[in-house]
Structures are given as C-alpha cells and as structure tokens.
Amino acid sequence: MMTTLPSINEKIQAKFGPYTLFTGILFIVLGTAGIFLPGIMSLGTVIFSAWLLFLGGVMWGIHTYRYDKNSIMNWIKSALLIGVSGLMLIDPMSGVEAVGLLLAIYLLLDAFGNFAMANSIHPAKGWFWMTFNGVTSLLLATLFLVGWPATSLYLVGLYVGLSLLFDGWALMAIGLTLRKE
User: Is residue 8 part of a domain?
Assistant: First the structure.
C-alpha cells in the first residue's frame, strides 16, 4: 500500500499542516472571483503591489534614518521604492503591463517550483496534482508572453485567478489526502 508521503519525506509532510485544506478552499474562492472579474483583479493586484512597495520604501527610509543616515544607497533604495509605487498608483495601466511581465516570470518560477515539489514527493499520492499545477503555470506563462502587453489588463487578473484556482485545487487535494490518513 502506498502512503500519502513516504516516511523518508516526513519533514515535507509536516509542512502540509491542518490549514492546507482551508488555504486550498480560500484560494479556489479567490481564483474564481479573479476569473469572473479579471479587470478588477488586475487593478487590485497592481494597487496592492504598489501599496506594498510604498510601505517597503517608507520602512526602508525609517530604517536608514535610524541606523545608517549617511548611506546614499539606502536612501536611493527607499526613494526608488516610493517612486515606483507612486507611478503605479498614478498610472495603474502601466503598472498592469509591468506586473504582467513580472507575472509571466512568476508563473515560470511557479511551474519549476511545482515540478520540484512533485519530484520530491513522487511516487506518493498528491504528486500528480503538483505536476498538473506546474504544467498549468508553464502554459499560462507561455500564453501571457505571446500577447503581452496588449492583453495585460484582461490577462493579469485572469491568470492570477487561474493560478490561485489551480494552487487551491492542488492544496485541497493534498489536504483531503492527508485528512484521510
């Protein structure tokens, strides 16, 4: 009988805790919303990213002020973070195009990460779902790069939604499999 995760991979199994199923369901809900409202998901992704960059720039500025006031490079880093976030908030469509390119890169990295995860838990139950998730991310990255930047507004939200949906299904499948044991 094949176990969910081989005993040799108990450390990996421990990483999939009791919240795996809940996280999977949450990702499925968010992903579905992104698929049906891709423009809103695109703008939400850009605005959220811009605010994170802004907060990072402010925090880096505070850190620089407190610990290294004479470091020009640290002040430049803070200014760049705040400046880029400001540009994204002022012109979100350009931000969507930039995030679109970054998303394609993310999806490529996500695909290879999923392939590595599937390889590490193979032949245990659940490895197929991680492989399927990797193939999906690889296809999404390829499709995105073909139409970029013209289709960014639609595709950023759609792809964030699809990625969340497939991540959710993979996590839910693993969570359900672990729950049965």
Answer: no
